Every structure is written in C-alpha cells, then in structure tokens.
Amino acid sequence: MSDPLAPMHRAFSTPANRRATRWWGAAIAGLTILTGCSSSPTPSPGTGATTSPGTTGSTTHQSSSAAPAPSGSASSSASASVTDSTAALSGEPRSLTDGLNLPWSVTFVDSTALISERDTGRVLELLSDGSTREVATIGGIVHGGEGGLLGLAVRAKQLFAYSTGENGNRIQKFDITGAAGSYGLGTPTTILDGIPAAGNHNGGRIAFGPDGMLYAGVGDAGDRPNAQDLASLSGKILRMDLDGTVPTDNPFPDSLVYSYGHRNVQGLAWAADGTMFASEFGQNTWDELNIIVPGGNYGWPTVEGIAGAEGFVDPVQQWSPDKASPSGIAIVDGTVFIANLRGEILRAVPVADPTQSTDYYTGVYGRIRDVVPGPDGTVWFLTNNTGSRGEQRDGDDHLYSVDLSR
Questions:
Q1: How far apart are CA 204 and CA 281, in angstroms?
Q2: 3-state DSSP assignment of residue 207
Q3: Which residues pair with 125 in a beta bridge?
Q4: Any residues with CB less than 8 A from the CB of 278 and at least 6 apart, and which?
Q5: With contact defined as beta carbons under 8 Å apart, do 323 and 284 qualify?
Q6: pLDDT in tens, 185-242
Q7: Angle at Cα 316 formed by Cα 280 and Cα 335, nearest 5°?
C-alpha cells in the first residue's frame, strides 16, 4: 500500500507551506500553558496563556517558555497570512431570542437565522420581533447522548443538516421553500449515511469552504483506533461535493477524508486567505485549535495536544478541558472566535498569531455551543445550558449578539 502521508508531504512542498513551516517553527517557541486561576497563571511549555478579568477580554502576551519543537514534515502546519487586522468584542451582549431547547447550530438564509435544536430535531426561524417559528422537524432522528440534530449549513437555497439516524450519523439536504417569515423545507435527500455514531463523540459541525465544497467534522464515536484508519469515516474531517461525492482533488484518492487523527471536531472556519481552522475536544489533557492541511494526521489517539512527534500535525494552541471544551468557531476580521462549553468562555484568537488568545464573559452566560458572524456586522453566539450538563439560567437557552470594535 502506498504511503498514506504522501499527499501531505506533497502539500508541504509548496512555497506557501514552506513559508508556513518557518512561521510555525518560530511561533511554537512562544506557546505557554495556563494552570490555576487567571489572575496568577503558572507558565509551562505547551499552550497560549489567557486571562479574563470580569466579563471583558484581556489580551495575553506570549510567554518566553519554549514548547517542544515540531519534528518531521508532517508536524508543521499551514499558516494564515500575517496581518494586523483583528476584531475585539465591545459592550454587553444582547439577547436576540430565548427559550431555546438545547440549540446546536446557527446558519443563515440571506439575513434570516435558522437554528437547530439537538433533541427536538426542530429547525427554527428567527423572526424580526425576536420570536421563533418552526420551519420543520427533521424526521428519522435517533436521539441519545450527544446525538440528534447537530450542524446546519446553507448553500443556494438548500439547507444541509447533520443528524443521527437509524444507520448512524448522516448528512441530508433540503430545498428551502417560502420566504422570510414563512420558510419551509422540502423532501430530504441523504447525501451521506452510515457515519459512525455513538452516545458521544459524534462531531457534527458542517460548513462550506471558500472552494464551495462541504466539510464535516466527524468524531471517533468512542472507537479510538478508527481515527487513524483511512478506511473509516470516524475521527476525520470530510470534504465532499454538494451531492456527497468525492472531489477529484481530495488528498486521498476516492476518499472523502480530508484530514484524520481527530477525536471530536466541532468547529470549522476559514480565514480570509483560505487557511482552515478547526476546534477539537481532547480527552483529559488538551483541547485543541488546529490549522488544517489536506491529508494531515492530527495524532489522535497516539498523541493529544502538542507533541512534536514525527508524522503528526501539532495544534497551534491548546487548553486544559476545564478551560475550554471548544465547539463552534467563526472567523471575523482576522480573529478566530471559539465557543467553549465546559470553560463557559467565548475565546478570541488572532489569525496572525494563533498562539495568543483573549477570553470574554467567563462564566457569565454558561456553556457556549456555537458562534457565527452576524449579518449586521456583529458576532452571534448560542448558549447551551438546557441539557443535563449545564446550569440553566433565566430564559435559557439564548441566542446573543455582541458588537465588534476594529
């Protein structure tokens, strides 16, 4: 059998990625670990330290503590173009709607928001007065644990939905009917079925890349070795055409696999230059923010977090799970915004230097499941407190909007 890393080796032979490799080698030395309380961080090699006094963000400077240097051609990472353009959150968030039941994803038809609810299977439309109406209930959903109706994405008046069905997780598409205030969904077409499902580690985030292809984050479904098995869809980021077929330029011939060695990817987003970022739940040691390269092996279950090990792509930043548990991500004006569940934080990471971060609203709004660019130039985020893992607050769950300063 041919070397499964060959496509990645070729990817790193390009001039852009050779420049990225040099950037990575310089940047990795500045990574630090945050342990203990934010007012008195203890630096150690390995992650970008972050502070968050009150509900406002505080930019963290890189520590001089050195992380292990990556080794081997596969342990480098693509890099975004360096730019000084970043966005910061400004002011207090405003609730756009409340009373949501375990919301999971937000997407837009033109400027109208559609929201998925994991356990009810409902797709809701946000109306101009702040209320919601049911667009449809997705049929055939098998509930249990972290399964249900998960990610949504829209392209050309079609809604794509990732959900758990009888044969595992699946991706379906629906024609969107009607107009704002009266949207409906047509008959589903299943474009991919049989994605391994379990009570946890289902992945579930889907998004369209700048290349027009549909990407899906798929968890390992509790079967760790499958993350390293290129014949399995588990523990992967998948890339497909709008009908579920394999693009001819995917890194592995006749395979939907775009990258592998993932535990549970729940956030996908692209910078202005096309650099792809993904958030990933770790086990007990490190949650990750990764830059995704085609054919890259991100190490799970062999390694977790920054390892500097031959053949694996290291994360650009890592956090202990109690400070993170990252789900949805969005990139706005050169900043990666990360929704965090267990950490109850909305985190901001500059694309130009992803070893740093700023925390917002620590513990104020509870668990945060998704974050998206708002159609009005703001940032929107979903809370996720109505399940068994959250501490429910008045009106939960909410969709919030917050202003940006640039």
A1: 12
A2: strand
A3: 114, 133
A4: 217, 237, 262, 265, 267, 268, 269, 289, 290, 292, 329
A5: no
A6: 999 999 999 999 999 999 999 999 999 999 999 999 999 999 999 999 999 999 999 9
A7: 85
Q: How crowded is residue 387: how many other Cβ atoms within 10 Å of its Cβ? A: 16
pTM listed for this prediction: 0.85
Token pair belonging to 336: 């990666």
Q: Which two tokens stand for residue 222?
A: 């509790």
Q: Looking at residue 223, what DSSP letter applies?
A: -
What are the structure tokens assigned to 1, written together?
A: 């059998």
Complete domains list, the chain, with CATH = 78-405 (2.120.10.30)
Tokens 């068994």, located at residue:
388
Instruction: pLDDT band for 284, please (50, 70, 90 cuts).
Output: very high
What's the longest Cα–Cα distance across the chain? 59
Distance CA 277, CA 85 (A): 17
Q: Which of 342, 349, 340 is CA-nearest to residue 382? A: 340
Helix (H) or strand (E) holding 25: helix 15-27
Six token digits for residue 65: 């503590």
Partners of residue 154 on adjacent β-strands: 159
Lookup: tokens for 329: 């991500």
Q: Report the distance separating Cα 150 and Cα 103, nearest Å.
A: 8
Contacting residues for 87 by C-beta, under 8 A, at least 6 apart: 332, 333, 334, 335, 348, 379, 404, 405, 406
C-alpha angle with apex 206: 233 to 279, nearest 5 degrees?
A: 85
